[in-house]
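Intended use. Records like the one below are meant for learning the mapping from a protein sequence to its folded structure. Do not use them to infer anything beyond what is encoded.
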Amino acid sequence: MAGIKLSAVKKVYPGSAEPAVKGVDLDIRDGEFVVLVGPSGCGKSTLLRMIAGLETVSDGEIAIGDRVVNQMEPAERDIAMVFQNYALYPHMSVRQNLSYGLKNRRMPKAEIDRKIEETAAILQIDAYLDRKPRALSGGQRQRVAMGRAIVRDPAAFLFDEPLSNLDAKLRLHMRGEIKQLHQRLGTTSVYVTHDQLEAMTLADRLVVLNHGRIEQVGRPLDLYREPASTFVAGFLGAPAMNLIEAEVSGGALMLDGASLASGLAAAPGRITAGIRPEAIRLRAGPGNFRLDYVEELGGSRIIHGHIGAQRMIAQADLATELAEEMVADLPVQELHLFHAETGERLPVAGR
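Structure written out for the chain above:
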């Protein structure tokens, strides 16, 4: 196993006016599971492919363990990559797919057989060893793809959106399997996804990317509770954080001349206020919240409405009494304030 260090890593594609990756610095510790997350086009897959050696580095340095690998071929980097399309050889059996890379290393047959049996047992694919990929389900193929990475005993695993081709139920199951696999093997892992729920549940640390730059790095719950910008606040969470264009006056959060909260330690002026849907307290009675529609989730409700012209989403239990007009309480300790222009986080009293 080994850590991975990126120092001022940059990627510029020929003919492009703007770099795809803009000077990224990141230190991934030995044995850590780090998830790169962000919307399409943010640079996360490009960054992963540079670590793997599938894309050249325009500037900066990548080190795996104590070796700088910028000029090394992918096969020399001691990494194993799992792709979203499985990348299995269709004409080979599962056993042959697992053994292919080991045979190329000229590993003794007895050692190959031992590694295949051990890996197949870990992933519960021992019953499929003599089948071809076309005879397997999507989840079984993904297990084989992970098995092909595991048998190599690499210094690091790289995952490029490995669950994106699976249905929702199978993705949930495979997330659990990947989490347990990492706990068992302890191999350094870098995982790319656009799915923030997948990122939150898998990561030791999250790296949120936006337009080729890192917006914030940290433990998933830390980023959820203390987002550094409106981008992170709006990206993490399902439903996403409410972001309200308002202003601070006399220590109160004002919207259209009405106070939504008081006791704010922020300078007067325009701001963006954020609050998680589950933090909003709705109660019956004439008030500031107008109901639009409700999503019933079984054990809870997602309540869509608006305050003035601003859309708001609240999450409440089934006991919450609903009406066309309600009162939305925004607890000051649950508010997040951001600079109206830059989107950067501002301090809030009591937090």
